[in-house]
Fold this sequence. Notes:
This protein has eight helices and three strands. The protein is mainly alpha-helical and 232 residues long. Among the domains are: 18-108, no CATH class; 175-231, no CATH class. A three-stranded mixed β-sheet has the order 1-2-3, covered by helices on one side. The radius of gyration is 39 Å and the shape is elongated.
Amino acid sequence: MVTDSNHSSPTGPETAGQLVIENGAAVASGHWTLDHYPALQRQIQQLPRPARDTLNLCLSGIDRLDTAGASVLVRYCGAETVLRLVETAGLRQEQRALLAAVAHALTQSPPAPQPINPWVRLAAGTGEKVTALATMLWLLAGFIGQTLAALMTILPRPSRWRWTAFVAAVHDTGLNALPIVALLTFLVGAVVAFLGATVLEDFGATIYTVNLVAFSFLREFGVLLAAILLAG
């Protein structure tokens, strides 16, 4: 933050900057610094919007000026107006330089984003997905390795087996899951039986509906439903 304190009073308290519009001129005085930024903002919001093309600046009454106060002045008076009148506004040299620098900064628009080649975007997206897949495979390999290492360490030592935790896990994932597994299996089986019987009726083979349900669950749906339920 650039500040100017050459005109500040060594003993008296700082007064917030004031801005009034008199005869088509913006007359500023006091301290236009970061300490008084909220008060300056409220004051500017209450003032009417000036006609910037014919506005004059009288800033000789400003005691202190920093970038915060300069930004308030520039936003109210307009960057073009400030740059046009900063040399005749009655400021000291360092204050003029600061106000002009802030006005130049506020007039500069951000650079437009450069268009990205679609092939570059495609290559970048593919690289990100490949990297994510490689990271997932690396973590999976690490998990499998840790599991095998733990098994090789614990299996030869039955005294280290945690039977209580093992039985609790079997109880949670096995016995407690029977109601939802039975309900889901019954509903899916009913749907498969209904659709299968409807199709097999055209061939006079409705007697094989039971075989269809049995083989579909033993070979496909049973394992799939169990995996879905265990995955949560």
